[in-house]
Structure formats: structure tokens, C-alpha cells
Amino acid sequence: MSNRVTNILLVGVGGQGILLAAEILSEAVLLAGFDVKKSEIHGMSQRGGSVVSHVRYGTEVFSPIVPEEEGDILFGFELMETYRSLPLLRQGGAVVANDLRIAPPSVLMGQDTYPDGLIERIKERFPDFLLLDGQRLAGEAGNPRAANTVLLGAVSRRLDIDEQFWLQALEKMAPKKALEVNKTAFLLGRSYGG
């Protein structure tokens, strides 16, 4: 194992399952034998506020926060939050994003408009860009709420962590009643992530 630390950022809005995805990701890399540190930053405590979760892993990790311009993978659950977080990504980093737009309160109140062309702007800055319709794929897996697990599956293909560790982490962290749907959603996302 090299001494390099891998930096992953999970961004979106409250209620999208970001924290569960970060838990599963952290558990998978821990099971694979890496040191891992995790941190969350909540813009608002209720549903709809910005959420950023930092996951860093390697042989030895000292800080849980990904320094600006050092993210390797930006894992976006909502397009505007993905775009806002691009400054955290290093040059040549990868973006895996959900094709989902959730209007923030300022847009809902008519004070702002949701920006156009975000997909094109992200792709222009970061050519290693995978866009998925997480809700549609999760629906195919049996539950549209499992979009977070679909996206996690896609991200898993970009990390050198064996599939067995991901599945073990899912078994440990996912709600028991939704385990089979989450496994199906994860594997479906994994098939798109390559």
C-alpha cells in the first residue's frame, strides 16, 4: 500500500441519504484494511439544507477534512450542490453526479432562479464526469429512495476496494428491511460506474 491518501467528497441536500452513503463508504475502506477519517458539515439541520461529507482513507490519515483543491472524487447527489463544490476537487479529479435538481428555498421563494447549463459547466472543468439518473435506476432496483446506494455503486468502481468489502459494509450499515433493495441498487450503480 502506498502512503497516498484518497479524498472523497459527498455533497447534496439533507434527506438524500448522504450520511448513510458516507458510513457505508467508510466501512468498506476500513474492512479493506485502510485507515479512514470521516467528517460532515451540515448547512441546515433539517431536510433541504446543504450537506457535505468528507471521507479520507489511506495507510495513515491524520485529518478528516479534505483540503480545498485536493478532492479526488466529488460524489454529488444534487446538481447545484455538485457544481458549488467543484473548488474542493483537484485538477483532473472525477465527478460522479446524480441528474437531480432540488430547488433551494431562495428559488422556491422567487428570489433566485436555478442556474442553467450546470452539466455542461461541470463537464467542461472536469472531463472525468459520470452523470446518472439515480432515482430512475433506484426505481428499477425496487425503491427510488435507494438513489444514494446506486450512486455509491458507481463511485465504488473508481476505488480499488474489492466488491466483497462493499457488500459486507452494506450488510452492516443499511437498514435490514431495505438490505436487498440496497444491494440490488448498489450492484446496478456499479454496473454503470465502469
Distance separating the two termini = 23 Å
- Helices and strands: which structural class? alpha/beta
Number of strands: 6
Number of DSSP helices? 8
Cα Rg: 16 Å
Share of residues in helices: 25-40%
Morphology: globular
Order of helices and strands: EHEEEHEHHEHHHH
Tell me the fraction of residues in β-strands, as a range.
15-25%
Mean pLDDT: 92
By CATH reckoning, the class would read Alpha Beta
Main β-sheet: number of strands, strand sense, barrel status? 6 strands, mixed
Q: How many discrete structural domains? A: 1
CATH architecture: 3-Layer(aba) Sandwich
Which ranges are low-confidence, i.e. pLDDT below 50, for 5 or more consecutive residues?
none
* Biggest sheet: strand arrangement: 2-3-1-4-5-6
CATH homology group:
Pyruvate-ferredoxin oxidoreductase, PFOR, domain III
Return the CATH topology.
Pyruvate-ferredoxin Oxidoreductase, domain 3
